[in-house]
Amino acid sequence: MDNLVYEDNPFRSFGFEVWARYIVYRMYMLPVWLVIVAALFLAYTQIQDKAVILIIVGAATLLSAAIVLATSPTRYQIFNDRIRIILVWLFHLDIPFDNIENATAATWRDLWGLNLNFISSYSSDDILQITRKRGAKIHINPSNRKLFLEYLNKALND
Question: What band does 99 get if pLDDT is binned at 50, 70 and 90?
Fold first, then answer.
């Protein structure tokens, strides 16, 4: 049976400052957005039909929104047998405890490489690195890293 041990919301408040930082921290998506803008510019200069341009602009906007939302965690949950990262209120990623090698504090230097980054801030005070036995490392940033690690270690020991 799934028992929820701990739940964390990475967004402490929903003020303008939090969302402004979130947009800045998503700058790693800049190359994708530049390609989309270049494709839109090329389509605008080469295609004469206005309806086709509107369809391309709409598709590019939806693609950009989907990319940002797909990597935006809304909650982190610790169950008695797994960690669940809830994305966009509909999708989630489960990490079973038997696949977790360790969970430690991380710095911004640890974010490089082929990792899964489900973080909304690049503050090194918040980032938690989950090293899996099979698969890529996962980075999350719970609102209280020490409390999250405490509950995670308690659940792992049980």
Answer: very high
Residue 65 vs residues 11, 51, 115, 133, 143: alpha-carbon distances, Å? 19, 21, 21, 32, 24
Tokens of 16: 């303008």
Is it the case that residue 120 has pLDDT exceeding 70? no
Does residue 111 have a pLDDT over 80?
A: no
Predicted confidence at residue 55, as pLDDT, reads 82
Q: Supply the pLDDT for residue 101.
A: 93
Q: How many CB atoms lie within 10 A of CB 140?
A: 26
